[in-house]
Amino acid sequence: MTTELFRGARDFLLAHREDYATAYEGFTWPRPERFNWALDWFDDIAYGNAATALHIVEEDGRETKLSFGELSVRSDQAANWLREQGVAAEDRILVMLGNQAELWITALAAMKLRAVVIPATPLLGPADLRDRVERGRVRHVIVRSEDADKFAEVPGSYTRIAAGDPVEGWLALDDLYQADASFRPDGPPSPTTR
């Protein structure tokens, strides 16, 4: 239902893309009572969709390709796994990943859980990370394994999750691929959730 509201609005704009006056006068944003982009839009268009949604080509020629359907399933697994690690609605997750599949999977999973992603570049050092963790009231950190040592100087009781090679004292993000692929939200999104 919600997806159809947004599709209708999109289709109206496409139908009138060369008639500005009609598009301007006739368009209104859909205002559903509740909406979660990852669940109500992405998963809906991703179901059974084998088209490529993500294609990453590394400098050395290695490639990662994921379809819409695969991203939906993996983000469901990630949401279930993150919830098992204590991630809940409105929790803040500092995500310090490069352009890798886990970045996009984690972003979708966080949306499904109604958690807040605080993006951070891997170029940040301990002082900047300490500031972000403190001011952002970060409860969980997801980083590339090679950046985990930067957090040795960042105090806090946040959950530490590493993507890539195992890091002592850190949870392995790769464990998410063992989680259930059937995600059920804890409840409907609230229009007042921040």
Question: Could you write a compact summary of the structure shown?
Answer:
The chain has 194 residues and is an alpha/beta fold. It is built from six helices and seven strands, in the order H-H-H-E-E-H-E-H-E-H-E-E-E. Helix 5 links the parallel strand 3 and strand 4.
Give a structural overview.
The protein is α/β, with parallel strands linked by helices. The protein has 6 helices and 7 strands; from the N terminus they run αααββαβαβαβββ. A hairpin with a 5-residue loop joins β1 and β2. α3 runs antiparallel to α4 and α4 packs across α5. The chain is globular and about 60 Å long. The model has no long low-confidence stretch (mean pLDDT 94).
Radius of gyration: 19 Å
Q: How is the largest sheet built, in terms of strand order? A: 4-3-5-6-7
Sketch the major β-sheet: 5 strands, parallel
- The H-and-E topology, N to C, reads as HHHEEHEHEHEEE
List the keywords.
single chain; 194 residues; alpha/beta; five-stranded parallel β-sheet; two-stranded antiparallel sheet; 7 strands; 37% helix
